[in-house]
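Issue 218. Parser rejects a valid record. Input:
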Amino acid sequence: MLNQIVLVGRLVEKPIVEENENGRKVSTITLAVPRSFKNSEGLYDNDFIPVILWEVIASNTSEYCKKGDLIGIKGRIQSSVDKIQVIAEKVTFLSSKASSKSEEQ
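Output the parser choked on:
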């Protein structure tokens, strides 16, 4: 049996790390993942997929990534009675979005 998911997409917003009631670091990010086919208007739609990051993965992603960065997620799907979640087990930083001149000044 296998429960594995691989996603590559851009961060919709800067990751923020919080502590849960048990004192564990957690971050929920949203990845914009383009579909592999064009819609009726000739454009690629995106799926916006929430991903949960824990502990060191959450801290490192928050420290080194910002909105628009391209990242890869390897993880698993976890289900409960009322929801399905993607849990990251590994995050790969693929590229930073190029900063504009207005951000540099």
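Fixed in the parser; the record now loads. Residues 5-104 form a domain with the OB fold (Dihydrolipoamide Acetyltransferase, E2P) fold (CATH 2.40.50.140).
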